[in-house]
Amino acid sequence: MRYAITGATGQLGRLVIDALLETVPAADVVAAVRDPAKASDLAAKGVEVREADYDRPDTLRTAFEGIGKVLLISSSAVGVREKQHRAAIDAAKAAGVELLAYTSILHADTTPAKLAREHKATEDAIAASGVPAAILRNGWYTENHLMGLQPALEHGAMVGSAGEGRFSSAVRADYAAAAAAVLLSAESQAGQVYELAGDDGYTLAEFAAELSRQTGKEIAYRDLPEADYKGVLAGAGLPEALADALADEDNVARNDTLFDDGRTLSRLIDRPTTPMRETVAAALAG
């Protein structure tokens, strides 16, 4: 069995490959990447690197040749990724893969979040294709909250637009371990939909309180209107579309759309998910 990971040079992709290499030979793993030059470290591990550009379908068809299972890691190109994902789905179907696993978003079928639209469209396209598939609906990454760590430490305030909404977040390594577990499972994963989230939920005020506890500094949580929070994100250099989507995601999280207490993720990886406090401690130490 050979496994292909798209977006393999990304933060999640590299972790999935590391998780696979704990169990399978490097020769059985293919890193499907847009720019092979950026995957020299993966090649050094014995992983085969193949060009796979979402915007060039011919490269996807070549990348999936001889592959049994594909992990389609969602593109970061918000606004155009539905088309990109459809190209990957078509390539997987043409290759006759045994399983296509896709990294979607938590509660993709019910959340009103803008970020979910392309994910839901991709899930629908996968279902319509007939390709045997498993859907990995990843919850929020704890690391997302750390993007504003330095400003929070400097100004004594963490900003957001989630009110008292709870986040059941986990670290990328937890989600990577889950993806590897699904790919490596001896049981058929076709038709499975996994709602993946951290074991414990918290509000952004509680996150700020944890920062305060670990740093000894008073760090408050300032809840902003969605438009104001979008302005903060755009001012920090995020592209307009991404700033809009992230501010919207925070706003809809007010209604616990990023909370899930099913503990499917910890069962799938056979261990507890990484606590938020440990992620904060690692970030402060780094």
UniProtKB/TrEMBL annotation:
Top-rank taxon, per record: Bacteria
Annotated Pfam families: NAD_binding_10
InterPro entries per the UniProt record, alphabetical: NAD(P)-bd_dom (IPR016040), NAD(P)-bd_dom_sf (IPR036291), NmrA-type_oxidoreductase (IPR052718)
Location of the NAD(P)-binding domain: 7-183
Protein name: NAD(P)H-binding protein
Source organism per UniProt: Plantimonas leprariae
